[in-house]
Amino acid sequence: MNRTITVAKGDGIGPEVTDAVLRILDAAECGLTYENIEVGEKVYLSGNSSGIPAGSWSSLRRNPVFLKGPITTPQGSGYKSLNVTIRKTLGLYANVRPCRSYHPFVRTQHPGMDVVVVRENEEDLYAGIEHRQTTDVYQCLKVLSLPGTEKIIRYAFEYARSNGRKKVTCLVKDNIMKLTDGMFADTFRRLGKEYPGLQQEIQIIDIGTARVATRPDRYDVIVTLNLYGDIISDVTAELTGSVGMAGSANIGDRISMFEAIHGSAPDIAGKGIANPSAMLNAACMMLVHLGLSDKAEAIQNAWLCALEDGLHPSDVFQEGVSKKRMGTSEFADAVVARLGKNPQQLKSVEMKGGAAPAYRYVRPQVKRELCGVDVFVCDPVSTPDELADRLLKASRGMLKLKLITNRGVKVWPQGFPETFCTDHWRCRFVGPDAVIGMEKATYMPIGHRQIHQLLHLLTEAHIDTVKTENLYLFDGVRGFSL
Ligand code: NAD
C-alpha cells in the first residue's frame, strides 16, 4: 500500500539527517511517498512570524503524518514557536518520548534505563495566555481541561498496555496546585481503575524528577503535564547518552508529527557528521503509527546491529568501545546493510500499538452556581487596611468583602506587617448572605448583576480594577482556592 506523508527537512543538520533517514526507509521498502514542505528559518526570515507558509497547512491536513526535521528559530522576539503552533493547531495532544540506554555501546550512567515520557502537549502554561497587569505584576495562566487531561492519561495507559509496559507513574504538584494538578491526579486515579494489569503510582514532580535523574530504572511510562513533561523528557533524553539518539512523536486524533528531540545543531551543520539516529527513531515511531510495525522493527534491529558493530557517529563515539567514527551518510549505509539482521547483545525491538485510542469525552452533569468574585485591583500606595477601608466604603454592602491577598498571601483581615506587598491585590467578594467563619465559609448563590453593580461602585470610587475572576460552586463544592 502506498502512503503519502508530509516531510519538512528543516534547517542546519535537518536536511542531512532527514535525507539519511529517507534513504533507510526506502531501502526497507516502506512504500512511502513524500510530499515536501518548507518550514523554519527561511520562512521566518521571509516575514512569516509562525515559520510555516499558509499553503503548507493543506499538506499537513491531507496526510496522516508529518516527519519534521529540526528547525532554527531566529533570535529575537516576534517569532512564534513553530512546534507549539503546529501542536495546538492540529490538536497533537500527546508528546511521546522513549528514552532507552544502549549500554555498553553508548556511554551512560544508567545502563538499565528504558523510560517513555508521555507529556500533555496542548494545555498548561503553554496555553500562551500571559498578561502584564500592573507595574509590578505579570501573570501566565495555567489552563487544564478535563477532556484534555482524560485524553492524555488514557493515551498513557493505552500506550503502556499495548507496548507491554508494566507501570505508569503520574507526576504532578497537587500538594500546591490542588485544583489543576489535583484534577490531573484524580483523573489518573479514576481512569487507572480500568487498567488493573498496570502498576500505578503518583509522585510529586520535584522528588519525582530527582528520582528519575538518579534511579531512572525505577520508571517505565511517565505521564505528566506539559511543562513538567518538557523538563523531565530532556532529563531522560540526556541520561541515555546523547540528544542525537532520541526521537519523539506528537500524536493527534487525525494527524501526528514525528521528529528528533534535538535542534538544528548549527555548530555541526554541513559537516556531514550529525547522528541521524534520533530522526531515525522518530521515523520508526511513525512507521508503527502507520501500522508498519514490521518495517519499524526491521529498521530498529538493523540500527542496533550497527551500534553493536561499533559503527558510531561522532557524538557517541568512544575510544576503546567504538570501532569506526561514522559520518551521517556512511552510518545510514551501515544501517541499510544490516536490514534483516537482529542484534546479539542489545534487546531486539518489538514495536506495537501506538495508535491513539478512540476517545469520546462525556461532559459530567454538574450544577454550577456563582457565589462570589475575586476583583484584582492595582493600588501602589495603600496599606492592606487602607485598601480594605476604601473597598468597604465603595462597595456599600453590595457584596461582602471576605479577604484581600497579595501574591496569594492573605493580608486582610489579620495580615502580618512582615508580608511583602506589590501593587496587585486580589480582593474577594462573596454574597451578602454568605456565612464567613474563621475555618469554614458557607457560600450563597449570587447573580451576575451584583458583580456588575459592585464593579460600577468601585469605579465610581476611583478603585483601579485590572481583572475579575468569578467564583463558582460545582454541585456545592468550591471551584476556587481558599
Ligand atoms: P541543538 O539540539 O541543536 O544542539 C545542542 C548540541 O547537541 C550541539 O552541540 C549539537 O552539535 C549537538 N547535536 C544536536 N543534534 C545532534 C546530532 N543529531 N548529532 C550530533 N550532535 C548533535 O540545540 P541548540 O544548539 O540549543 O539549538 C539550535 C537551534 O535549534 C536553535 O535555533 C533552536 O531554537 C532550534 N531547536 C529546534 C528544535 C526543533 O525543531 N524541534 C528543538 C530544539 C532546538
Helical proportion, percent range: 25-40%
What is the total tally of β strands?
22
Calculate the mean pLDDT score and round it. Answer: 93
Question: Which runs of at least 5 residues are low in confidence (pLDDT < 50)?
Answer: none
CATH classification class of the largest domain:
Alpha Beta
Please tell me what the overall shape is.
Answer: elongated
How many helical stretches? 13
Number of individual domains:
2
The hetero compounds bound to this protein are:
nicotinamide-adenine-dinucleotide
Task: Write the CATH homologous superfamily of the largest domain.
Answer: Isopropylmalate Dehydrogenase
Can you tell me the CATH architecture of the largest domain? 3-Layer(aba) Sandwich
**Strand proportion:** 15-25%
Q: What is CATH's topology name of the largest domain?
A: Isopropylmalate Dehydrogenase
CA radius of gyration is: 27 Å
> Could you tell me how far the N terminus lies from the C terminus, measured between alpha carbons in angstroms?
58 Å
Most strands sheet? 10 strands, mixed
| Strand order in the sheet with the most strands | 2-1-3-12-11-4-5-10-8-9
How would you classify the helix and strand content by structural class? Answer: alpha/beta
